Amino acid sequence: MAIDTNGSSPSGYGPDHPAPVIEPPRARTRRTPRTTRTNFEMYGWLFMRVSGILLVVLVITHLMIQLVLDGGVSKVSFAFVAGRWASPFWQAWDLIMLWLAMLHGGLGLRTIINDYAQRDGTRFWLKMLLYTATVFTVLLGTLVIFTFDPNIS
């Protein structure tokens, strides 16, 4: 490092003026959880990328088949859905879309909650509400797909 004529470095720090100490952004306290050996965040990141690509393919194909090839929205009715869900292929298609969309959206909202909820209690209750809504929707949607009865009168 070069020294000026007055004996200080170009940055203004020297033997008489030490550089300021920068604390780590989140100093470890007794309440800070210990590091775990799981790679949940990495797997979550990977899941978001893969599920996003799969969802784009599934949803665009679904829309093309339902709205373009099958005559548009005017054809969609209870009987139309009953006919579709009589096939295990369409049940599986809709089930995969449901599960991927709910898990993808839930994981995305979890990230938003972690980023923006500042208080631990608020973060905890928002995530509990999110998890409850996600599990409820996935279970209810799965139940409807597999127990759909076209003979309801």
Outline the biggest β-sheet: none
Return the domain count: 1
CATH level-four homologous superfamily name: Fumarate reductase/succinate dehydrogenase, transmembrane subunit
- Distance between the ends: 87 Å
Instruction: Give the class-level CATH name.
Output: Mainly Alpha
Mind telling me the C-alpha Rg?
A: 27 Å
The proportion of residues forming helix, as a percent range, comes to: 55-70%
CATH topology description: 3 helical TM bundles of succinate and fumarate reductases
Query: Quick one: how many beta strands?
Result: 0
Give the DSSP E fraction (strand runs of 2 or more residues).
under 5%
SS-based class: mainly alpha
Roughly what is the average pLDDT, rounded to an integer?
A: 85
Sum up the overall morphology in one term: elongated
Second rung of CATH, namely the architecture: Up-down Bundle
Return the string of H and E elements. HHHH
DSSP helix count?
4
Low-confidence parts: none
Biased composition (Polar residues): 1-11
Region (Disordered): 1-33
Transmembrane segments: 46-69, 89-107, 128-148
Membrane topology: Multi-pass membrane protein
Description:
- The protein is mainly α and about 150 residues long.
- The protein contains four helices and no strands.
- The chain has helices at about 40-70, 80-85, 90-115, 120-145.
- The protein is elongated and about 85 Å long.
In short:
By secondary structure, the chain is mainly α.
